[in-house]
């Protein structure tokens, strides 16, 4: 049973309601969690507020917080396999993928430990000797963190590490489908020396446990990763008390392949771009834009290889990718594919659940390639968040830039070509937060991550990812105070 975590203690829900966590690969119950009520969430917010206003954390030195974050990274390293098992159990992700995720989580804590260690206030040169003018970087306050189910701990770490580095306190609500590793992290934070009340966790649905984190007056900022529609609702709620917001809302990311690209690399990466973690990746290369002259050979081979992708269980060595997160999500993907075909897309691979008897209890869907798509089709515009690739063709550089940008999203994209100048021109023209040239998916904690347009607001990772959780404060000190003579204090007769 996973309990809530409030003020450094495990607590039950005030309603004693619980929720079952389902293993997506076999449909079995793997865990049960307490389901927070609004009152529980308010208690958690209150604990975070007290810890911020009366506790030591926001006033500790950068060096101290850096040491604690380093300790968190060390403990995560020590307990890595416990986390890996829990993450794979909740998400159906292969163990090896959960291990990569854990390595990245550890890097994120180390990165912010280093960044905060060296951060100091900024001297402002005002051209007057008697003035000391400085910008201090203070914590924003009490943060509400709402995270999704596809990379549960990774997405939590992108928020928690910089929030703690900045001196903030927080309440996190992980996805109700995948709470296990976020819960484990609460114990790790306490063991590392984070004071009680700084880190709090509530569990449950978005509507009951999530909404208070976006509209409670004592929350100073809400940071959310999830779906576009939820993000819009959170903005509305947060606007009532003018909270800071940080939103990462997914994408419909173009993967552009020119005829002069290294075909083998482009092909291999096109598969990885879209089918990694069964497409449940915000930066998935779900839109393939391929130059017309190579379309037939490229797509035929892509579809052949997609048909060979081995679905399976997290611990099975042969598995190449796993199940979708839930039955609801599986049904959504089925409808998405049916709709695409009704719009004129041609099914080249997949398009159905697997027939393997061993997989029937899980939420599996075959990697799917839909050819003959064009930018106005719903399947090209909507994020499926599943193992579905739409293929469009183009003839010119100008045309492909227009097509690639013809979406409400702007998270990521890639361009494949051996012409470096062309690659840079296209990269510059794409209205997205990350562009890969002759590569797909790599990211590092040092580089900002986030979206243009409706993919979100703000950035995670990098120095900007820390800045989200800091308020710059200008302190102006006059060493030789004098009178201004602005108002002369004389009576006019
Ligand atoms: O996400 P939700 P869902 C996209 C993807 C997917 C779609 C829906 O396209 O198909 O979103 O997925 C909490 N107030 N992404 O429904 O609902 C919820 O409990 C406050 C992209 O699973 O956005 C969970 O903790 N919180 C994405 C979190 O929001 C609310 C990753 C995300 O759930 C809430 C996941 C509310 N009103 C899905 N409603 C990415 N950007 O990587 C829900 N929540």
SSE map:
Elements: E1 4-6, E2 9-11, E3 18-22, E4 29-34, H1 38-53, H2 62-78, H3 80-91, H4 95-118, E5 122-123, E6 131-139, E7 142-146, H5 152-166, E8 169-173, H6 180-192, E9 199-201, H7 206-215, E10 221-225, H8 228-239, E11 244-248, E12 254-257, H9 263-275, E13 287-291, H10 295-308, H11 327-342, E14 346-349, E15 368-371, H12 378-381, E16 388-394, H13 397-405, E17 412-416, H14 420-429, E18 434-437, E19 456-457, H15 462-467, E20 470-478
Parallel strand pairs: 7-8, 7-10, 8-9, 10-11, 12-13, 12-17, 13-16, 15-16, 17-18
Antiparallel strand pairs: 1-2, 3-4, 5-6, 6-20, 11-19, 14-15
Helix pairs in contact: 1-7, 2-4, 2-5, 2-6, 3-4, 4-5, 9-10
This protein binds ligand TXE.
Could you please describe the fold and organization of this structure?
- This protein has 493 residues and is α/β, with parallel strands linked by helices.
- It contains 15 helices and 20 strands.
- The protein has helices at 38-53, 62-78, 80-91, 95-118, 152-166, 180-192, 206-215, 228-239, 263-275, 295-308, 327-342, 378-381, 397-405, 420-429, 462-467, and strands spanning 4-6, 9-11, 18-22, 29-34, 122-123, 131-139, 142-146, 169-173, 199-201, 221-225, 244-248, 254-257, 287-291, 346-349, 368-371, 388-394, 412-416, 434-437, 456-457, 470-478.
- The strands form five sheets. A seven-stranded mixed β-sheet has the order 14-15-16-13-12-17-18, with helices on both faces. A six-stranded mixed β-sheet has the order 9-8-7-10-11-19, with helices on both faces. Strands 5-6-20 form a three-stranded antiparallel β-sheet, with no helix packed on it.
- α2 packs antiparallel against α4 (95-118), α2 (62-78) packs antiparallel against α5 and α9 (263-275) crosses α10 (295-308).
- The protein is globular.
- The mean pLDDT is 98.
- Ligand TXE is lined by residues 146-150, 173, 175-176, 205-207, 210-211, 214, 225-227, 230, 233-234, 248-250, 282, 383, 385.
């Amino acid at each position: 049973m996973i309990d809530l975590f409030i003020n450094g203690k495990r607590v039950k829900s005030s309603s004693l309601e619980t929720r079952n966590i389902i293993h997506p690969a076999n449909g079995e119950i793997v865990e049960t969690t307490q389901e927070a009520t609004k009152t529980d969430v308010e208690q958690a917010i209150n604990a975070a507020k007290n810890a911020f206003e009366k506790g030591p954390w926001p006033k500790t030195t950068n060096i101290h917080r850096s040491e604690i974050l380093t300790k968190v990274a060390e403990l995560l390293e020590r307990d890595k396999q416990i986390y890996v098992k829990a993450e794979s159990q909740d998400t159906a992700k292969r163990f090896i993928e959960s291990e990569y995720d854990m390595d990245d989580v550890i890097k994120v804590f180390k990165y912010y430990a280093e960044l905060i260690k060296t951060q100091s206030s900024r001297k402002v040169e005002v051209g007057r000797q008697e003035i000391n003018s400085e910008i201090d970087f203070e914590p924003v306050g009490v943060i509400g963190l709402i995270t999704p189910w596809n990379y549960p701990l990774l997405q939590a770490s992108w928020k928690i590490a910089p929030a703690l580095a900045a001196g903030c306190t927080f309440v996190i609500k992980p996805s109700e489908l995948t709470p296990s590793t976020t819960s484990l992290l609460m114990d790790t934070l306490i063991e590392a020396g984070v004071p009680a009340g700084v880190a709090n966790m509530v569990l449950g649905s978005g509507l009951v446990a999530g909404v208070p984190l976006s509209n409670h007056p004592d929350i100073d900022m809400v940071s959310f990763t999830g779906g576009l529609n939820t993000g819009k609702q959170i903005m509305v709620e947060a606007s009532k008390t003018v909270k800071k917001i940080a939103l990462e809302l997914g994408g419909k990311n173009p993967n552009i392949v020119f005829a002069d690209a290294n075909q083998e690399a482009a092909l291999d990466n096109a598969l990885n771009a879209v089918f990694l973690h069964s497409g449940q990746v915000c930066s998935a290369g779900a839109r393939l834009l391929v130059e017309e002259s190579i379309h037939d050979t490229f797509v035929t081979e892509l579809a052949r290889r997609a048909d060979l992708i081995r679905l399976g269980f997290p611990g099975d060595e042969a598995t190449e990718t796993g199940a979708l997160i839930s039955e609801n999500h599986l049904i959504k993907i089925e409808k998405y594919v049916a709709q695409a075909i009704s719009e004129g897309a041609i099914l080249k691979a997949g398009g159905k659940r697997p027939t393997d008897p061993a997989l029937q209890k899980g939420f599996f869907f075959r990697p799917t390639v839909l050819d003959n798509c064009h930018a106005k089709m719903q399947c090209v515009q909507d994020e499926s968040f599943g193992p579905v690739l739409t293929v469009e063709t183009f003839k010119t550089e100008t045309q492909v830039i227009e097509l690639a940008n013809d979406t409400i999203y702007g998270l990521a994209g890639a361009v494949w070509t051996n012409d470096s100048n062309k690659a840079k021109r296209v990269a510059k023209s794409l209205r997205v937060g990350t562009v890969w040239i002759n590569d797909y998916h790599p990211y590092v904690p040092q580089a900002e991550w986030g979206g243009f347009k409706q993919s979100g607001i703000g950035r995670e990772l990098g120095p900007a990812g820390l800045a989200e959780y800091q308020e710059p404060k200008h302190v102006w000190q006059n060493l030789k105070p004098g009178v201004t003579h602005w108002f002369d204090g004389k009576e006019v007769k």
